[in-house]
Fold these 3 entries.
Entry 1:
Amino acid sequence: MIGSLRGKLTAREPTAIIIECAGVGYEVATPMSTFLELPQIGEDVFLYMHLLVRENDQNLYGFATDEEKHLFRTLLKISGVGAKMGLAILSAMTVRDFERCVQTDDAAMLIKIPGVGKKTAERLIIEMRDKIDKAPLQVVAARADGGPGDPRSLAVDALVSLGYKLTEVKRLLAQIDPKDKSAEDIIRLALRHTVS
C-alpha cells in the first residue's frame, strides 16, 4: 500500500499530476482542493495517497491533507459512490463544508455537485452521519498558481473532467471575468458559484 509520496512535481494538469520519486513517475489523480495547493513544476511535493485497485485497473489518488484522504476513503465505502464522485465532492467543498452538510441534513447543497442526485445525497447524509469525526477539521486554503496554456481552456477542461456538463461550465464561466486570472483562480471561482 502506498500511504504517501514525496518527490518532484514533473507534470501538473487539473486533476492529474505526475510525481517523480527515485526515477519513477507516479500518475496521481487529485481533487481541485489539492491541485490548487500544489507547487510549481520542478518543486518538491508531498501528498497523502490512496491506491485504488480494481480488477483491471490501479489508480493513485493524492490529497493535500490526511483529512481529505480519510473522507475520500470513507466515501468509497458508500454504495453508489465511486472515485470520480469522491473527487467531485472534495473538489466542490472542503471537508468542513461536507461535514456541515451531513450534520445539518443539507441535501440541497450536495445535489449541486455533478453526479450527485437526490437519492445519492440523502444516502450520503444517512450513511456518513455516524462516520463524520466531530473534532474540528483542517480547512485547506487555496493558493493561486498559474500554469501553462490558456487559463480559461484549462479551467473548462478541468470542470468537464469533474463531471460538469459543458453548458453548465459555460454558464459558470460567463459569470467570471478571466482577465489576469490563472486557471486555478477561474476554477475556484466557478466552484464557489456551484455551492453558493
Entry 2:
Amino acid sequence: MEPDRVVYSPIGTRPRLRWPGDARVALWVVPNIEHYEYLPDPIRSRDPWPRSPHPDVLGYGGKDYGNRVGLWRMFEVMDRHDIRCTVSLSMAVFEHYPEILAAMERRRWDVMCHGIYNTQYHWGMSEAEERAVIADCIATHRRLTGRDFAGWFSPAATFTHNTPDLVAEAGIKYYCDWYHDDQPFPMKTRSGRLITIPYQMDINDAMVYRHAIEAEEFARMITDHFDVVWREGAESGRVMCIALHPYMMGQPHRIRHLDRALAYILGHEGVWKATGEEIADWYIAHHLPLIERHLANEAPRRAPRDRRAGAAQ
C-alpha cells in the first residue's frame, strides 16, 4: 500500500497558488546550523563518524569549522542581500554557542528545529522517546528565546513513521522531511494540522559535495533551478529552497559563488524573500482552503487502490 500521508495531486491541476505581491517564487534560504557531538552517546542504527576508533577528530573538526568561522562569513553574505534566513537548527547550538543565538536574534532569523544534536538520530526511537525529544526541543527554544518555532526537519533526515503525527500533535505548523513537491501541501496526521514545505536535497551543498560537485557548479545548479521555477511561477507560485551548511559554503573558496547565485536570483522581479513560518502562515491563511476543497472534489476519483489486491481477483 502506498503511504497515506499525502494525496496525489498533479501540480498543474491544482488551484493557482498566489504569493504576496503576486510573486512567482517564494525563496527561503536554509542554513543548517548544527552541532555534531565529539563522542556521541548513544550510537543507534548508524555511527555518525566514519573514522574509528573514536574520537574522529578530522570529522569533528570539519563540522566545528562551520560554527567557528563559516557561519560568520554566511552572515555577511545574507546581510548584504537583506535575506532573513530560516535556520535548520540543532537546538543544542543555542546552549553551546550563545554568540550564535545572539547573532541570529539580532537578525531576526527564523528557526526550524533540526533536533537536539545532528549526531542523535531518530531512527529506532519509540514513539514515547521521539515525543520526549520533540518536547525537549520546544521547551529549550522557548526558554532561550521566549518563542515557539514553527517548523520541523528531523536531525540528519532520520524521521520515523510517527514523526508527522508527533510534530502535528506538538502544534508545529510545517514539516520538511518529505521532498516531494515544489509547493506546500497538506499532510494527513492523527490530530492537528500539518503542511509540508519544500526543502531541498538537490540544491543542498552537503548532498552535491558528496558527488564531487564543487561550489561553482553548485551555484550554476542554483541559478538553473531558479530559472525553471521562476518561469513556472508565472502560472502558479513555486517555492525555492536553498539548503546550506556553514562548514561547506562558508569556506573561503566557496562563499563568493553563493554570493553570486543570490545576486542573480534577487536581480529578478517576482521573488518573495520569505521565512519558513511566513510561507506556512500565508499558505494556511490564503491557499489551504482552496486546495482542501480541490482535494475533496477529487476524492471520488482517487479512492485508494491496491494493485496487488486487484491482480489477485
Entry 3:
Amino acid sequence: MKKDLLSLLDLEREDFEHLFKRAMKLKERHQKGIFDSLLAGKTLGLIFDKKSTRTRIAFETAMIQMGGHPIYMSTQDTQISRNEPAKDTARVLSRYIDCLAMRTFDHALVEEFAASSTIPVINALTDSFHPCQILSDIMTVIEHKGGYKGIKIAWVGDGNNVANSWVNAASVLGIDLILACPDGHAIRQDIVDAAGADAMDNIIFTNDPKDAVKGADVVYTDVWASMGEEDELEGRLAAFEGFQVNEDLLAHAKDDVLVLHCLPAHRGEEISEAVLEAENSAFWDQAENKRHMHKAILESLIIK
C-alpha cells in the first residue's frame, strides 16, 4: 500500500527515527565517497508552482545520487495550466513515474493529487506545511546537540508553514517547543487543533520573543512574509518589531545556542547579518542535510 508524506502528522515516532538514522547514514556514506543505486530505474516527478533553490536541487541531486532520475515540471508547462483536473493529471502521472513531489500554494491541491494517485506523493511545501524541511532541521539538531530529547527549541517569527510543521513534529516526538509569534500572526487554530497541541505541556505559545528564547538550546526563525505574501511585508514590519534574531535576543538563550533558518534569509529583517555570518552557524548544514534527508524519504516511500 502506497504511503504519502503530506504533513508530519502522517508519520509515527518510529518513522521519524528511521528517517533520521537513515539520512545520517546516507550522509556518512556520501562523505566517504560511497554511492548507492537503490533507486536505479526509478523516476521522481517534481511539480513546482513556487520558486525554489534548496528544495528543488536537494530533491534532484538526492534522486540522481541514489541512481534514479528526476523530472522537473513547472505547472505552466503542463496541462494543469489549461485547467486539466488534478485527479486526471494524478492518474496519468501514476502511469509514468514512481513518486511525485509537489511545491504549491493550496495544501488541498496536494491532498487531491494524493487521493487520486497510485504512487507516493510528497509535500515539498505548501502554504500550510513544509514537512521535509523540518525533518532535515531535526537531523541538524541531532548532529549538533546529540539528539532532540531534552532540547528546548524556540521559534521566533511568523506562524507560517514551517512553524506549523514544527508544531506537528513536536506533537509526535514530544519535543520541547515554544513559539513566539506577534499578535495577528500566530499559528492557525485549526493547525493547533489537528496536532492536539493545546493539550500538550511540551508545546507553548507566546507573543514574547525574549521569554521564548530564555534558556533555549535552539532558536529558529524564518522570513516575516512567505512566498505570495511579499506585498504584505511593509505592513508587517511594525508587527514584528522586537522579533529579529540578533545578538541581543540570543543573549537570553544558552551560551551554546544553535540558530537555524530554512533560508532564503532577509538579512537585517528577521535575522541580523552578524548572526547569519557567525563562525559556528549551522545554516549551511541545514541546507546540505535536505539532500540526505530527501534520499531517506524517497527510499522509504518508493522501495516497498
